[in-house]
Design a protein that fits this description.
- The chain is about 35% helix and about 10% strand.
- By secondary structure, it is α/β, with parallel strands linked by helices.
- It has two domains: about 260 residues, 3-Layer(aba) Sandwich (Rossmann fold); about 90 residues, 2-Layer Sandwich (formyl-coa transferase, domain 3).
- The protein has a six-stranded parallel sheet, sandwiched between helices. It has a three-stranded antiparallel sheet with strand order 7-8-9.
């Protein structure tokens, strides 16, 4: 089998929430050896769950989760178990193809172990507030002494400089600061009713981190030099609003939210279909596509209304137009809407929930979901690779690691520690796994 694109590259990361875990997942998928630095002293909030021992009342069993949030306290088989940090579904999804070791980097002995690992590595990634790494004595300048050509990526919410750099932020705050929360809502509702728990900044910062690392690796291959990467999560998501930002800088205009509608297309929206909570989305971007839509609907009398002949007219009369279209979509299921409209060249598709996406024939045909076995979570299907490469096929090679699962490999084979050193550090609780968790973890 051909070597994977990043085979031979070793990354070390402090996983926090979603951004760094997603970025390191991408690197690991490409073949990089991804080692997570975890702890038996401190539970990693959000990364491996929201509570070290969540009450079963907060673990959803069927339907919507606690508070209707859709997965915040979600564990395999609706059960947190004795070691819930090994059963949290977000970690299981993002932890694939990685290794885990536990080091107490709050103590000098742990810092020295960590530096020995960095000396054998190529990349370090973290997303703590900048002052956190400085307090630990693990800045770029310090790690560069351990490994001169190390690539060090830091990705706080607002970056490593600026008046608010040490603010404590999650995705909700970053998207609000970036302008997403303002625009991603309906025009007749305020932001308090439309915020979701799907944050663009989490995935965009992780993907941007992986891309930045690839660029830095390419630079190091050419020059032999590592570098520091200052990645502000907010700056990875603002470009998503490029048109709105430029409209203000060039025209002095603040764009208002439009819901599912488009300023230059009509019809453009989500329409109710036959069945309970079934919907389809369609977009008409030209007069030719409008004619295709009319043919697909059987050219009912209202399509001869001159108000709908031009895009300007359709936009001005969108409320009435949407009512006519939904009268038709309500007579069909959402896949039928897609098939009928696509035959006439109209962009259309069903609105799917997670169950629908798993059973979608297209994703099934492409083999997107992969079967993975995990010693704590059992065997389940997982979302697969983001893309396919014909010369270097990618797949889920190993499940998400249990806490400290790869201590022996990291400390013995990577760092070269003796059995005596390891035993002494375990005795002092500098390193360890599940069996060594201390009271402060909880």
């Amino acid at each position: 089998m051909a070597k994977l694109p990043l085979e031979g590259v070793r990354s070390v990361a402090m996983p926090v929430v979603f951004g760094v875990p997603f970025g390191t997942m991408l690197l690991a998928d490409l073949g990089a050896e991804g080692i997570l630095i975890e702890s038996i002293q401190h539970f990693p909030p959000v990364t491996r769950g929201y509570l070290p021992k969540p009450p079963q009342a907060l673990v959803p069993t069927t339907g919507a989760t606690f508070g209707g949030t859709g997965g915040i306290q979600t564990y395999v088989d609706h059960w947190a178990g004795d070691r819930p940090w090994g059963r949290f579904v977000m970690f299981l999804a993002l932890g694939r193809n990685k290794l885990s070791c536990c080091i107490d980097i709050a103590r000098p002995e742990g810092i020295e172990v960590f530096k020995r690992l960095i000396k054998e590595s190529d990349i370090f990634l973290e997303s703590n507030a900048p002052d956190a790494m400085a307090k630990l004595g693990l800045t770029y300048d310090v790690l560069k002494e351990a490994k001169e050509d190390i690539i060090y990526l830091s990705m706080p919410g607002l970056g490593c400089s600026g008046p608010h750099t040490n603010c404590s932020l999650f995705g909700a705050q970053i998207q609000a600061l970036a302008g997403h929360t303002w625009l991603t809502r309906y025009p007749d509702l305020d932001p308090t009713t439309t915020q979701s728990l799907l944050f663009h900044c989490d995935a965009s910062s992780g993907a941007s981190a992986a891309f930045a690392i690839l660029c830095a690796l390419h630079y190091r291959n050419r020059t032999g030099k590592g570098q520091f990467i200052d990645l502000a999560q907010i700056e990875t998501v603002i470009p998503h609003l490029g048109e709105a930002i430029m409209d203000y800088t060039m025209n002095g205009r603040v764009q208002e939210p439009t819901g599912n509608r488009h300023p230059a297309m009509a019809p453009h929206g989500v329409y109710r279909c036959r069945g309970e909570d079934r919907w389809a989305v369609l977009s008409v971007s030209s007069d030719e596509e409008w004619q295709g839509l009319c043919r697909a609907l059987g050219n009912p009398p209202w399509t001869s209304d001159e108000r709908f002949f031009t895009v300007t007219g359709r936009i001005e009369n969108q409320d009435e137009l949407d009512k006519y279209i939904e009268e038709w979509t309500c007579r069909h299921d959402n896949y039928e809407v897609m098939y009928i409209l696509q035959k006439e060249g109209v962009a259309a598709g069903p609105v799917l929930d997670q169950r629908d996406a798993y059973h979608d024939a297209h994703l099934q045909c492409r083999g997107f979901f992969e079967l993975v076995s995990h010693r704590e979570a059992g065997t389940h299907l997982y979302p697969g690779m983001l893309f396919n490469m014909d010369k270097t096929p990618l797949n889920i090679r190993k499940p998400a690691p249990c806490l400290g699962e790869h201590n022996d490999y990291v400390f013995k084979e990577v760092i070269g520690m003796s059995d005596g050193e390891i035993a002494e550090l375990e005795k002092e609780q500098i390193i360890g796994g599940d069996e060594y968790i201390v009271e402060s973890f909880f």
